[in-house]
Each structure stands twice: as structure tokens, then as C-alpha cells.
What we know:
This protein has helices at residues 2-14, 89-102, 134-137, 164-174, 197-205, 216-224, 249-273; strands spanning 23-27, 39-45, 63-69, 72-78, 106-115, 125-133, 181-188, 210-212, 228-238. The chain is an alpha/beta fold and 276 residues long. Strands 5-8-7-6-9 form a five-stranded mixed β-barrel. β3 and β4 (72-78) form a beta hairpin. The chain is globular.
Amino acid sequence: MLYDDVMEATNAIRARTQLRPHIALILGSGLGALADEIEQAVTIPYEDIPHFAHSTVAGHAGRLVIGMLEGVAVVAMQGRFHFYEGYTQQVITFPVRVMHMLGAETLFVSNAAGGVNPAYHPGDFMLLRDHISLPGLSGANPLMGPNDERFGERFPPLAKAYDPVLRNHARTVASTQPATLHEGVYVMVSGPSFETGAELRFLHTVGADAVGMSTVPEVIVARHMGMRVLGISLITNEATGSEAEDVKHEDVLAVGSAASQQFIQLVRGILRATSF
């Protein structure tokens, strides 16, 4: 059963550290450098954790890092799993359940995304106000199947998936830093192929500001368990449907590397500004 597998993984991690994290961090493509900032760190490769999948994508180190950041106990996924890697939604979100069982009540989730909104440019950040899940609308939801009440209710509401108080803290912190922070709607596509021009124009008409291949399943499961959620996208390319050149994953990673220090300072500032 899922619950038993989650507890087996949780207990395996607890055998390696006595720290009980308050915040869970999921670090997206090119943003894993934040994990190197964690102090008193205990680092566990995913392959050493029962029932964890393996990260197969460049820019995702595949390690769980537990320690202190800005005086807050955190657990960070240095790399995530994706639907396009062939994993089920339940496998993708398994680490979120484990991090919650370790003690995390809040999830900070990040990703690399294309800027559908023409006002967004590479190197900008977007605070997630809401999301659209194209896989979810077509039947791929991590909560499908029997519901275990030990995790949460059968029909969790998502109208306020992204915590308004945390978003307010993020806006306040960003106003004191050089990072450009927008706020908008993230749309998830399954990938791994990047979107066609026609698809991007369609996404713009339905209200998307940024597009990516992750995040939403993790947010759904976090909310299922009652966690507060803050989501931040790094805009790595313009995705308005009129690009002259194709997007390459290497370019996404390069923008992530260039923006990593701004991302680190933004997250550090939010941790300092928020009581946990």
C-alpha cells in the first residue's frame, strides 16, 4: 500500500538524521544550487531511499538534502521526477508525501518555465497564483484511485492552492531585490517535446502566463495533505508562439545557472520574512 511505502521511506530517512524539517523545497531545472547553501546538511541519494524513483534528466542531481537554511529546518529535493520520464503521477509525487511525513508543513516548489505572457523575459521569475493542468484535465491526476484518509480527504479543494500569505511575503521580499517577479498562471503540459507555436498561442488564449512540464502534481498532493504551498517559476525562454528558434534544454539550464544566485537570495529572503 502507498501509505506503508511512504512510511518505509520516511523511517529510512529518519535513521540518517534526527532533524525534523518544517519546509520542503523542490528545486527545478538549473536551480539545484540552493541545496548547496543548506548548513549541517545530510545528503541522501535517491537510490538509497526505499521506493524513490531515479531522476534521469540533466540538471536534476537526484539527492535529498536535509539541514538548516536561514535558521529553518528544511528538506530539499535536488532534482524531481517528471511525467514524461514514464513515471506515474503517484510515483512523481511520492517524495512530497514522504517530506510531509518527515514533518514539513509547507512546500516551496520551483521550476523552469517558458514565458507565454509576452511581458515575461528570460531571467524573470513568476510567482504562481494559479495553475492549469492539461494532463489533469485529460485524466492524469495523482489522486486517482482509492483515497487513503490518513493522507487527506477524497475531494480536496484547490481554489486557493497557492498560499496568499506566502505570496505576499514573496512579493515584499522581491521588491527589495534586483530580481523581476511577476505573478501569474502556470500551465502544465506533459512533455518532453516542447510546445508548437499553435499550442503556445492556444495556451495564451486560455489564460496561461508560463508553461512547464512539472509542479502541478506535487502541488495537488501537497494540498491533499494540508500543506501550504508557494510556487516560483524561473522564466527560461520566451514561449509566445512566435519564436524564431527552437528551445533547447541546454539553454534552459544555462538560464537557470545564470539566475541561480537571484533565486537563492529570493528564497532566503522569504524564509527570513516568514515565521515557521
